[in-house]
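Researcher: I'm preparing a figure for a lab meeting and need a structural model of a single chain. I don't have an experimental structure, so a prediction will have to do for now. The sequence is pasted below. Please return the structure as C-alpha cells so I can convert it later.
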Amino acid sequence: MTQQKRRLTDRVKKFATVIGQGSVINGTLGGKDDYVILGRVEGNADLQGTLIVQEGGEWQGDMTADYIILCGKVNGDICARSKLEITNTAQVTGNISGQSIAIAEGAVFEGEIRMQMKQDVTYFEDQRSTRALAE
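Model: Understood. Here is the structure written out cell by cell.
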C-alpha cells in the first residue's frame, strides 16, 4: 500500500489571514493562524500554523512556522517545524531548516540547508498553481 503525499497548500484553511497585495507590514507576527502573504512583510514571524509567501509577495526577515510554502521573494532565515516547500516561482536568500524540505525545479535558492531529521531534500517539478489560495 502506498501513501499518497498531499501538497502543503491543501493544509491551509479557507479563512486564513491575508496580507493583501500593496500592503506593507513592519514588525513581528505571532499567533496560531494560517497566513497568506501577497504584499510585503518587513520583520520576523513565529507562527503555529502555515505561512505562505505567494508569488508577488515579499518577506524581509526571519520566519518560523509549522509549515511554510514559499512562492515569492524571501530574504532571511527560514525554519519550518515540520515541512518547508519552495515552489518554482520562489527566490530565497537565507538559510533554511526543517524536518522535510522540498524544492521545485526552477526555484532560486542561495543559502545553506539544514535537515532536522535524516532525510534527503526532495526536488520536484511543480504541476499545479498555488494562486488559488489567494482567491
